[in-house]
Amino acid sequence: MEIRVLKYFLTVAQEQSFSKAAKVLNVSQPALSKQIKDLEEEYQITLFNRTTRSLSLTEEGRLFKEQAKQIISLVNRTDSYLKNINKYISGDIYLGCSESEANRIVMKAISKTQQHHPDIRFHIYSGNAQYVEEQLDQGIFDLGIVTGPADLSKYDYLTLPTLDTWGVLMKKDSELAKLDTISPKDLLDKPMIISNQEMVKNGISGWLGGNQRALNVVATYNLFYNAKLMCEENVGYVLTLKHLYNESNDSPICFKPLNPPLTLRSHLVWKKYKVFPKAIEIFLEILNEEIKKSS
């Protein structure tokens, strides 16, 4: 399999036409069609549904497209790094983040890094801890921020100083809004919206005394924004972290912390024994200094 052929495949998938893709790539349509046909025969798969009027990806083609995009991304990053390694400190840093106020110190370190090294570029992707770990393990992300109970045994990491506090987001006119804090018994008969991460579920289950199944879970979420919308539209009460929502006087919803308190720690993680380019080494040094100042 050649990188050139992967780029051909992705262009055809994007244009949904061999003739249009051939014009974009500046190659002949017969030559392009033969390259894709050879690729299909090499792996004994069908990548495209072909008719006289349309062209679409098969299920195998859709899966192959995602893998091809990741391969091309890694090739481009490696090419950029090798071209600039002896010129000046530059490069691209790919960072996956779960949602947390603890991320603020990382963003401060990004700002300081770019003040001193403006040719270092950061690419931030948001997702839950499971998504971040999957992308790290596949080599798509260089670094990741994971919040809460996580298996750190396969990573090197820096512990971020800010603790996150769990609580419940609710409508201001709801039954629980008059309380200062929320206890396990307060939630057992309420419609609940909770994170779909297994490790988060386990933490909540422990806070509930192993009684998570007693909760009336009406919806789950992986990122906060849609959970907030569901709360505003009376779907239910949202178990979430403090500071993800900035409450105002005219807001229809409010946040109440859990009692007993439930807190989580965030970590910046990367694959063990990974050899980093200079740009990432510099960023980690700056972040480490910020963490020390905070402590």
UniProtKB/TrEMBL annotation:
Coiled-coil region(s): none
Lipid metabolism recorded as keyword: no
SUPFAM superfamilies from the UniProt entry: Periplasmic binding protein-like II (SSF53850), Winged helix' DNA-binding domain (SSF46785)
PROSITE patterns (alphabetical): HTH_LYSR (PS50931)
Keywords from the UniProt entry: DNA-binding, Transcription, Transcription regulation
Domain HTH lysR-type: 1-58
Pfam families to which the protein is assigned, alphabetical: HTH_1, LysR_substrate
Homology family: Belongs to the LysR transcriptional regulatory family.
Name of protein: LysR family transcriptional regulator
